[in-house]
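Trying the structure run again after the queue cleared.
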Amino acid sequence: MSESIVAYRYAKALIDLANEQGVVKEVNQDMSFFEMVCQENDNFVAVMANPIVRHDKKLSILKKIFENKVNNVTFSIFKVLTKKNREKLIYPIAKEFQKLFNLQTGVQIVEVSSAVALTDTQRSQFSKIVADAIHKEIKLEESVDESLIGGYVLRVGDTQIDTSVKKKLNELKLALA
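Done. Tokens:
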């Protein structure tokens, strides 16, 4: 079975348990915290994925970092995963949990890439226009891609709107060829 399917199943079980216990918001914050730790520390992710490191050692690392900083429901998934030798799935599970939480709460992730950083005015305009179009609360994720030259690339789910100068130059190049 693929890693993403297994991660989805664990995340689904975790969100169901968190809903049952009434701590879904806390667990979501814990998963965001865990994602941040993973993104900032490649060594941590490597240790969790390393089959040579014993599972009890991985659990002790997780205890030192997270035990008193996260909800008991969140930490219980860490214990289950180390017991089942699936520590490398914790990060994908955290990402899947975030997707499920956003789906449950009606939040849509919107990605915007632009040649320069967005101003506060542009940010609020993007948020308002997209929120009005899709009738959902949005969470804007921004990135800067200087190769775009100008304009932006907006991704909402499977839909992409590309108004970049780079795209227009490529279209012109193809038309002239």
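The domain at 3-103 is CATH 1.10.520.20 (Peroxidase; domain 1). Worth checking whether this holds up in the mutant runs.
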